[in-house]
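Cont'd.
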Amino acid sequence: MAGQRTLVDKIWDDHVVAEDAGAPSVLAIDLHLVHEVTSPQAFTGLRRRGLGVRHPERTVATADHSVPTTPRNLPILDELAAAQVAQLETNCHEFGIPLHGLGSPSQGIVHVIGPQLGLTQPGMTIVCGDSHTSTHGAFGALAFGIGTSEVEMVLATQCLLQRRPKTYEVRVDGRLAPGVSAKDVILALLAKIGIGGGTGHVFEYRGSAIEALSMEQRMTVCNMSIEGGARAGLVAPDDTTFEYLAGRTHAPHGAAWDAAVARWRELPTDDGATFDRSVTIDASALEPMVTYGTNPGMGLPITARVPDPAAASDDARRRGLEQALTYMDLQPGQPLLGQKVDVVFIGSCTNGRISDLRLAAAALKGRRVADGVRLLVVPGSDEVKREAEREGLHEIFRAAGADWREAGCSMCIAMNGDQLSPGQYAVSTSNRNFEGRQGKGGRTFLASPLTAAASAVAGAIADPRLLPGIETLAAVGGR
Amino acid sequence: MAEPFVSFASRVIPLPAENVDTDQIVPARYLKITDKAGLADALFRDWRFEADGARKDPAFVLDRPEMAGRRILLAGDNFGCGSSREHAPWALVAWGIQAVITTSCADIFRGNALKNGLLPIVVDPERHRQLFELVAQNADVELAVDLAEQVVHLPGDEDLPFDVDPFSKLMLLKGTDELGYLLGKASAIDAWEQGHPARIDTRGNPGTSA
């Protein structure tokens, strides 16, 4: 093995349990996150084989995907969702897995509560039956989504069979302009490399613009690694990481903290280590980004115009673009700015954290949502909700005419009744604009919380850089 | 646990769309199940049916009468991108699909497919284009998939070789699964855990081990 190793190499090497010739590596998993949608069949598999959960104390569960965001004292009206949540409770009880369930003060989107509880730590291997597990890579953890068969494997053995991934350096240098945020960085990357550009690879985000991001902003970037085809995306741990983690419930304390930090400081990629691929982005040249099509790679600077399929480089691209524009009912050459919207959704594991809500609230303060526009603000966790209410953000949202909801995945995946109607347009801070993702026939423009808030006020896609006082406003997010 | 994968021949379902995501393969509203029942009906649901429940007119390719019983899906680049839902390969298999031929598969989908007896066959763009041409010229052309030999037999004498992970190939041919293999590694896992204390305790108290 070469002397210089990447962050990914180091974590990988630390977790290889066994390697048979011709077989994938047996990789140890430090933390397994479980939710109601992708786990029931795995528990059924365990029962069928007469197996237990090897390490319930390295496993943690929450209910997020199919849960309503209506007041918690109301029952779950959807019988299937209610049964799924009840099944999770039964499974966790039977197998001894800690559950941050509905009604718990620590309930929330699985990728929001892991970091919030201090469960997500540098150097770990973390998996979950959810593709946005890449979020946890923001801490310098190797974190990736798995299928339900793999959920069963991890429950039974605390291990997975994996081939070593290739590495892909994403270097982002320079300073972001006011009004341009982490969401715009990742949408710009996706527009550059395409939705399959990172397949077979793990991203490592590096460079001065990444180092300058807060932990929550890094989570936004890492969250959408999977939208570029990379199962994981990491940022090297640094003082920003340690400051965020210090004092959190499950973070090490006392002498164990000092030892952990010393170990974490060894994780960053060595000078001279090489990546299989590399791409560079100039942060200072970025504008707010918005998607126009039906995958997250179909994004443009907000001042751009919808592309013309006739100019596509090949037939498959042209057909894909035609299908996307037909679905979106957009015309080639039309500007994105000013495109009417019906709904604005602020939330999700991409942009449902407290700093996202602070930004949105700062942009909405003293303003009203445009007539006919529905604005949903859905905190990423119950703790985010409580913090927002301590800061009075909910009052700003309500005064603006927004609907302030309980925590969950909500309209990002539209499993819980929060959904678009056919034909509606939404600006959404979530991660996917696939056909029907936010409700059958619904049309999604992905954007940052600032762009979403500005668009809610305008009733149309709007440039957040034109918000009064954007320089001070953009600094509001905090840690 | 899947059945052993045996060679088979089938006509082809052409789906010349790129970046087919798992939300199209199985829309999220069908994920509220706690078993695997009913997923064949959910397959490509929103490409097959209008909002009012009527079948699309013209019918989506899967619903054309002549496509019934076909086991090979010929799809565009980056098939299965998006979410990790294993419901996507479950639904394809429930429909009767045994192989997806494309120029690339999303990583999570590929892994999920291989664990369910669904073979992703990745070919280069030129061969991929030729296959679509072949199907365009003769919609009833039959391809034979031979996993043991890692080849798709085309009409005439032409063979199309493909790569497959050797371990996945073994698992598919035997119809065994990775969990069985992992359970066989129990002593190695025990030994590794002896030397590597847990990084976390999710059950409450703050972690004290470094």
